[in-house]
Amino acid sequence: MAATPVPPHPSAHCARWSGHTGTVHSDRHHRRYPNTVDDPLALFLPFQIRPLESADLGELLGVFREAIQISAADQYNQQQRDAWSRAQSHESLISALSEGEAVVAEWDDALVGFAHRVNGYINMVFVHPDASRVGIATLLYQHLEDGARVEGITELNAHASLTAHNFFHFMGFTSEGQEEAERDGVRLPRHHMRKSLV
Question: Cβ(120)–Cβ(153) under 8 Å?
């Protein structure tokens, strides 16, 4: 289930060119992430979108689970979030990302998000909640769309969580209807979304 637990920030497109970023505080793993709440000057810390490297793999599961548990809390109950976040292990996530195109967002030397595409399917877009609302999800997605266009792909599809629905709509997708996925016996509503690239 693709998830982008952050709505696009109005400055997202500027961020792509200007190196936008955010202030710094610690999560429960003592990993420091940019955050703009306490220090607006943190917006000027450097960040980049780059291809996934093997050294990144240890941090991805934490981003995945924190995004689900915190950012999706308004749309999914605790049982649903637990089942969803347990759906990937470190090994299964590495296996899933080994095919197709995977990119990460690095902000002030912290890995704060990642996205994955297999051909015309947007498989994952996740951003750590401490790095939300500065356009990182938009940049990750745009990188994948650019890659798809270069490959001659004419349509993109995604299974967007309720949390991610508005984000994908903002990026030009339309919903083909709501459906349910099942994770560990728990039903999770989501949208099948589609975007033409022609």
Answer: yes
Buried b vs exposed e over 11-29: b needs ≥16 C-beta within 10 Å? ebeebeeeebbbbbeeeee
Q: How far is CA 144 from the centre of its chain?
A: 11
Angle subtended at Cα 182 by Cα 175 and Cα 74, rounded to the nearest 5 degrees: 65
Per residue in 100-144, pLDDT tens? 999 999 988 889 999 999 999 999 999 999 988 888 999 999 999
CA nearest to 137, candidates 98, 161, 171, 110? 171
Nearest to 80 by CA among 166, 189, 191, 4: 189
Q: Which residues, 6 or more positions from 187, have their beta carbon under 8 angstroms from its beta carbon?
A: 80, 180, 181
Q: Residue 149 and residue 74: Cα distance in Å, rounded?
A: 34
Q: Tokens 């728990």 appear where?
A: 186
